[in-house]
Design brief:
2 domains, single chain, 10 strands, Transposase Inhibitor Protein From Tn5, Chain A, domain 1, alpha+beta, 286 residues
């Protein structure tokens, strides 16, 4: 199903042709009394979903589930395979310079936020456009004792002023060919995976579960992922002009009606309201 979706989804909106992915994880809270196998804290249960989102079509291309205590970096090292020439974007929670080196050795690239206490030495500077949001673009080498051992090569540090939030952000990458502003925009587009997590929690019913066993929980999670891929496939295969959320809403409202998929795709707010008015209530006789 994922392969079929990849064949029809549009490419990402950046000019470069490298595959672009985002890493992140989200925690799903569980009642410890009902899910004792998912102990997270003293009186709290949880599982964690680790996801790799493809910027092409905003589609989850890999999902792994662990206990709530699993570290994000450890999960990334265990589950995600690095594809050469790809660009991976993630937040500061994935800071691990040995993993950064693993990505670099496999001829791939990463874009992330730099921590405030990063120790480094400036090895050179790249030209910065005048009057833009890019404040500096430096080539650096790590000077910390352990970080220098984990990543002995050069890195690129981009300082960018975000006028919307009125803050200065520092981005770290091993890509020296893309423009500094493009590096900042790649990270800014990472909000798509945050939106994806919020969407599936609100609309795909993975915050409340029908069963309490690990198998029941994971079956419901994978069912939700399959449903999301089905919506994605229908949207791009039929060139549906509305959002996936709107398509989900139409399917949900008309799920028990004998209506063809083609008719569903042609529904709008007005026609959906008319169909609701035409529905006759069932009369039961005792």
């Amino acid at each position: 199903m994922l392969d079929r979706c990849k064949d029809i989804t549009p490419k990402h909106k950046f000019r470069f042709k490298n595959p672009l992915y985002a890493f992140d994880a989200t925690t799903i809270d569980l009642c410890l009394a009902a899910f004792p196998w998912a102990k997270f804290r003293a009186a709290k249960g949880a599982i964690k979903l680790h996801c790799q989102l493809d910027y092409a079509g905003n589609m989850p291309c890999f999902v792994a589930a662990t206990d709530g205590k699993c570290n994000d970096v450890r999960a990334a090292k265990s589950f995600f395979n690095v594809v050469p020439d790809s660009i991976y974007c993630f937040d500061k929670g994935y800071t691990d310079f040995s993993w950064y080196r693993h990505i670099d050795i496999n001829r791939a690239f990463f874009v992330t936020r730099a921590k405030e206490n990063l120790q480094y030495t400036v090895a050179g500077q790249q030209e910065v456009p005048v009057g833009g949001s890019v404040l500096s673009d430096e080539n650096i080498t790590l000077s910390g004792f352990y970080t220098a051992k984990d990543y002995p090569g050069k890195l690129r540090l981009v300082r960018y002023y975000d006028p919307e939030r009125d803050v200065v952000l520092e981005f770290l990458t091993n890509n020296f060919s893309l423009a500094a502003a493009t590096i900042a925009h790649i990270y800014k587009a990472r909000w798509q995976i945050e939106t994806f997590f919020k969407w599936i929690k609100q609309n795909l019913k993975i915050k409340s579960f029908l069963g309490t066993s690990p198998n029941a929980v994971m079956t419901q999670v994978w069912t939700a992922m399959c449903y999301y891929l089905l919506l994605t496939y229908i949207k791009y295969q039929t060139k549906y002009r509305f959002s996936i959320f709107y398509l989900h809403r139409i399917v949900r409202e008309m799920l028990m009606e004998r209506t063809s998929l083609i008719d569903l795709l042609n529904l709008n707010e007005t026609r959906l309201a008319k169909l609701r008015c035409q529905e006759q209530p069932l009369l039961f006789q005792v």
